[in-house]
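[Meeting: bench + compute handoff]

Bench side (C.D.) handed over the final construct sequence. Compute side (W.E.) agreed to return the predicted structure before the next meeting so the bench team could plan truncations. Sequence as handed over:
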Amino acid sequence: MKNINFVEETARALAFLTRLPIPDRYFKGLKPENSAGCAGVFPLAGLIIALLSAIPLIIFHAIGAPVMIVTTVTVLAMVLLTGALHEDGLGDVADGFGGGSTTKQRLEIMGDSRLGTYGVVAVAGALILRVSALSAILSAHGLLASVCGLIAAASASRGAMVWMWSALPNAKADGVSKMVGSPPESALSLSSILALAGASIFGLLAAGFVNASIAIGLGIITLLGFQRVCLRMIKGQTGDTLGACQQLVEIALLTGLAISYS
């Protein structure tokens, strides 16, 4: 694996995945078709996103706010930080897959910026599930565990995006995914290592070995299952399906960590 400037690549990944103001110096000489190289550090960007989102989690917990308020504010902070990038993808995929009867129709619906009934239900459901799972972790294991769970899910789910991006062909002849190309093999390898490490270490800290194992298993099953659905529905992936993948895998991971045996 070639030498990587982690600071530079992580800055580019954060620019790609968030609304954070990243200095222009990190993009000098970078061509659009080469920008997929930063995908290798997507899990690190996810870790930073989780840490920043954990600030309101810590503050609201410290002032004694009810658990559901604490976790709702936390999830909304993450949505604001990312500019609802992944939620938008999930909504478009739900509308396209739910409303289209052919590949062409599904892609056309997904390209429409308006949100339909399927999309509204999908995004609302995703928010509710994330808040509920994080609330369960906070209630059962405490503040530190909920922060670690947030990191595990945010990091690994962004690694899942890179895997799907590399595994499936482009479903459209245009769009962001097509424009920037596929991540190089080195980026796929790095993101896979970082995602698995993040899920394992922080998942273990959040809820123990059994729950971390369940969470990772659910995440992998969700990723592979969603890939099959995308191949059947649109014969590949788009930027929207990558966003939807992140949401679904994050929910799966948080759910695994939230499972209680008492």
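W.E. noted at the follow-up: The two ends are 45 Å apart (CA to CA). C.D. will use this when planning the next construct.
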